[in-house]
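Narrative summary of target 7.
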Amino acid sequence: MTEKGRSEYRVDQQPAFVLHTYPWRETSLIVEFFTRDYGRIPLVARGAKRPMSQYRGLLNPFCPLAVSYSGKGEVKNLTRCEWYGTIPMNEKVLMSAFYINELLVRLLPRGEPEPSLFTIYYDTLKKLALEKDYLVPLRYFERDFLKVLGYALPSGPFPAKHYRFVRGDFVANDNTAFEGSGISGTTLESLNTNTLQSGTQEWEARMLMRDLIRYYLEDAPLNTRRILNELNKL
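Modeled conformation, tokenized:
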């Protein structure tokens, strides 16, 4: 980073991904980037909607980029964007990838460096693109993301048969009346140790993560989940 005064500075060639874009004025965009060293940041891409813009075709999700920017205030100006390939996503996994982006936009505070989460995000996108058992890496991302935010899962041991997340706490219950609800102690252990299995374990972990994320979003709905439900109905 090069200082240009007390309130203006420049960052060059910062690894980044596009999370979301918003229209700004007639020809420009505000782009939410997830950067390696500066976390989530908003940048103005001036003239990005013009046919001959230098950013034409570059400001797409799931493409490794190197961005340069400068300016004052919270929303600075994108000055250069370099493309380093694309992580191909077919429609089977595309909504899951957009879901990850929405989690970052909704829950990750702006301007907080999270280089380890950036690596996890990049690795998760690559695993989604492989399509094989892609739901398991998605559960690991949710777990790791919540941990970065300070909402880590219990570390165990898990002696009870089943656990439920009840508005901010885990409740253990051995009663067989709850069989099939909540998450088993075995699945919690597998989720913590990267040994989660596809099928029943992944489904239990998915329901748990849904409850956790809904709680931390204060019950505000996710757009990607709403869209996916509508597509499933069709």
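The first helix runs from residue 91 to 107.
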